[in-house]
TrEMBL record:
Catalysis: reaction(s): (R)-pantoate + beta-alanine + ATP = (R)-pantothenate + AMP + diphosphate + H(+)
Organism: Parvibaculum sedimenti
Protein name: Pantothenate synthetase
Gene name for this UniProt entry: panC
Molecular function per GO: ATP binding; pantoate-beta-alanine ligase activity
Binding of ATP, residues: 39-46, 155-158, 184, 192-195
Known pathway: Cofactor biosynthesis; (R)-pantothenate biosynthesis; (R)-pantothenate from (R)-pantoate and beta-alanine: step 1/1
CDD domains given in the database record: PanC
Family: Belongs to the pantothenate synthetase family.
Subcellular location, principal: cytoplasm
């Protein structure tokens, strides 16, 4: 149960036992604890989640773990950036502890349990990445149980993921408050993402217009345009930018992610998009 306090400016726990020992000590001091799960390659969006957690609790754990179970065989698990030293440098002054387990620590030999969340995991990303949310729900359930924080913060950029995690925590009676942090955007409105580094100069310019089309499509729906008409036009505009494929551009119920049968929002709504340009798949969303 050792903690690495020498490699970086922020201590690192690499085992569940070490993580729990630190948190137990914090609890003895009467401190509240927050958790920010990440896969590393940290940017300002991640740091904003740590800062959000710090407004609610006394100590914040940031987990860094590139989770293999949420990647399909044809996805970029091997290429996903792993920048632990740089991540630790960014976290200094923000978080209080990094939890950076190995895959063997998280998934011991013979591991055979999967957490799946019906309903909110089925549409949108669930159609294009059918194994993704089971991997997410499983690793997040493990992290919440390992740390048992008072709160856990997740970015609203992955809106469907946030909905899945909220449903999972509620259904399993995990006593953790799940908070969503606002999307941080670049100067042109592109949602911050670790995958943005893959964009070429031409692709990056086109990507900067994705949020504009999303916002204008949402405005049309809010003004009364029927949803299929507005989203079909929006998808055409995205493809005209040079995007190779639009997986979806849809308006859904913000909580349940169900469609609106009438073609008009009858509850708080969210517009969500996933589109691929070059080798980069971008997602974004915003309220309607």
């Amino acid at each position: 149960m050792t903690i690495d306090t020498t490699s970086y400016a922020i201590p690192v726990a690499r085992s569940v036992a070490s993580l729990r020992a630190v948190i137990a000590d914090w609890r003895k001091q009467g401190l509240k604890v927050g958790l920010v799960p990440t896969m590393g390659a940290l940017h300002s969006g991640h740091l904003s989640l740590v800062d959000l957690a710090k407004t609610k609790v006394d100590r914040v754990v940031v987990s860094i773990f590139v989770n293999p179970t949420q990647f399909a065989p044809n996805e970029d698990f091997g290429a996903y950036p792993r920048t632990e030293a740089a991540d630790a440098e960014k976290l200094a002054g923000h978080g209080d502890l990094i939890f950076a387990p190995s895959a063997a620590e998280m998934y011991h030999p013979g591991f055979s349990t999967t957490v799946s969340v019906a309903g909110v995991s089925a549409p949108l990303e669930g159609q294009f990445r059918p194994t993704h949310f089971a991997g997410v729900a499983t690793v997040v359930a493990k992290l919440l149980i390992q740390a048992l924080p008072d709160i856990a913060c997740f970015g609203e950029k992955d809106w469907q993921q946030l909905a899945v995690i909220r449903r999972m925590a509620e259904d399993l009676d995990i006593p953790v408050e799940i908070l969503g942090g606002a999307i941080l955007r670049e100067a042109d409105g592109l949602a911050m993402s670790s995958r943005n580094v893959y964009l070429s100069e031409r692709e990056r310019e086109a990507a900067g217009q994705l949020n504009v089309i999303l916002r204008e499509t949402a405005a049309k729906v809010a003004a009364g345009t029927i949803i299929p008409e507005a989203t079909s036009e929006g998808a055409d505009r995205i493809r005209a930018l040079g995007f190779d494929h639009v997986d979806y551009l849809e308006v859904r119920d913000a909580a349940s992610l169900e469609i609106f049968p009438s073609g008009h929002p009858t509850a708080p709504a969210r517009i969500l998009v996933a589109a691929k340009i070059g080798r980069t798949r971008l997602i974004d969303n915003m309220p309607v």
